[in-house]
Amino acid sequence: MSTNNRVLIFDTTMRDGEQSPGASMNRDEKIRIAKTLEEMGVDIIEAGFAIASQGDFDAVEAVSKVVTESIVCSLARSGRADIERAGEALRHAKRKRIHTFIATSPLHMRVKLQMEPETVLQAVIDSVTRARQYTDDVEWSAEDATRTDHDFLCRCVEAAISAGAKTVNIPDTVGYTVPDEYHALIKMLFNRVPNIDKAIVSVHCHNDLGLAVANSLAAVQAGARQVECTINGLGERAGNCAMEEVVMALRTRKDHMPYITGIKTELITRASHLVSTITGFPVQPNKAIVGANAFAHEAGIHQDGMLKDANTYEIMTPESVGLRKSNLVMGKHSGRHAFRAKLEEMGYNFGDNAINDAFKRFKDLADKKKDVYDEDIIALVDDAVVRENERIKFVSLEVICGTKVAKQTAELELEIDGVVKSAKATGDGPVDATFNAIKQLTTSTQHLQIYQVHAVTGGTDAQAEVTVRLEENGKTVMGQGADADTLVASARAYINALNKLLVKREKTAPAALSA
């Protein structure tokens, strides 16, 4: 198992990625991401940490019901309750894995666990044995492995495999190691653990020193055959190994790293945009593979080289990650069937309601905007899907603003539970007035924590994508909206967040009444 050239991709966007402050995802959003990951060919999808909350449990259970090809995984600490909860959440999964872990470094054992090494070793054996009661596919992780004593790490890995772990993960939990050191650590395990050939060695690298991808690739060269990663490198602190980067590095440099993955790389850009939209974490323009500038060339000497031969400055093609060279893809004369065919060509397959809403807004956009790009269509469709089944729906907005008016004024119409209502409000700017009008029609108990805008494409007629984060009674939600009008996009984002708050209120209301 350790000598073949197939590298398994273990995606933890919905577990470790969600642990980024402000990056929470609800059940429906996790289902959307999981379906995309499965379509991409991800081998293992870590859907959550089942015992962390009822929401996490529900998400793991829901993903287990819809994913049939990929392995669905839940994280669990070494305790009985964690493992039982993970097993229960995964009971519907066609293919399932329990991923259990315990810290093994002297620092973590002494300060966090307050356990002696021999007690930790026994916990490794007990947790893997218990997890095997729910599934034959058990993964064990040594938290803070890169700062663990080598002798003790070898004993723990050997014990985990003997207890039935089919995968052993050697994480760089705090992003501390460097490539040659990590390579040597993985090699050491292959040389010293007698039963290492009975399991797949996995790696999970954090990016605190910007080395997560480099460390992961070094581990693969040393014999690891599973890489744990996230879309866009999302994750705690500085994030995790970015899936798109490690996958494209393996694909692009086969001459140096003769390994393969099962990832359909043409879906990378769509997955990146989906995760960015759901979490509200924009992708920096100079981000490798999926950044807006990854295939952009401004310097004259670069442009000259590109015109003669793209290989002069591009080591991979835009098409290989799901981009297209053509800019103008659709126009105001395009019909519904052509629009649907275009979406299918781009890898989308949505229901009629989402398609109809997106098509209507596409036609409105085509009347206003000179050029309609792939990114515009993606934003429209994602926005339409986000808005399906919402209780509060945007109808219309009119704003009076500028230097000649004393107060900015917004007149707003919303459809709330099927009834159209209107309000007029003022504010210290057009966005503030718009949000005040929304509060008049809904509720004012929420607090706006984040408001950010970025352009979907270039030009003054670019669509705006807006992200807001609302907080209410300790609960936070992200909302997204897209439109050619920044104020309309802002209203859509705020309303989207409010709808998520309504769901959270409904879930917590019974507990509140009984308290």
Offer a quick outline of the entry.
By secondary structure, the protein is an alpha/beta fold. Helix content is 41%, strand content 19%.
Question: Helix and strand layout, with pairings?
Answer:
Blueprint: E1 8-11, H1 27-40, E2 44-48, H2 54-66, E3 71-77, H3 80-89, E4 96-103, H4 106-113, H5 117-131, E5 138-143, H6 150-163, E6 167-169, H7 179-192, E7 200-204, H8 212-222, E8 226-229, H9 243-252, H10 268-279, H11 300-308, H12 336-345, H13 352-368, H14 374-387, E9 392-400, E10 408-416, E11 419-427, H15 430-441, E12 447-455, E13 464-472, E14 475-483, H16 486-514
Parallel strand pairs: 1-2, 1-8, 2-3, 3-4, 4-5, 5-6, 6-7, 7-8
Antiparallel strand pairs: 9-10, 10-11, 12-13, 13-14
Provide an overview of this structure.
The protein is an alpha/beta fold and 515 residues long. Helices cover 41% and strands 19% of the residues. The strands form three sheets. Strands 1-2-3-4-5-6-7-8 form an eight-stranded parallel beta barrel, surrounded by seven helices. A three-stranded antiparallel sheet has the order 9-10-11. It has a three-stranded antiparallel sheet with strand order 12-13-14. The C terminus is likely disordered.
Structural class: alpha/beta
SS element count, helices: 16
CATH class of the largest domain: Alpha Beta
Count of distinct strands:
14
The CATH superfamily name of the largest domain is Aldolase class I
> What are the low-pLDDT stretches, counting only 5+ consecutive residues below 50?
508-515
- Determine the CATH topology of the largest domain: TIM Barrel
User: What percent of residues adopt helix (DSSP H or I)?
Assistant: 40-55%
Amount of beta strand: 15-25%
Task: Report, as a whole number of angstroms, the end-to-end distance.
Answer: 53 Å
- What's the overall geometry? globular
Largest sheet, spatial ordering of strands: 1-2-3-4-5-6-7-8
Largest sheet geometry = 8 strands, parallel, barrel
Number of domains: 3
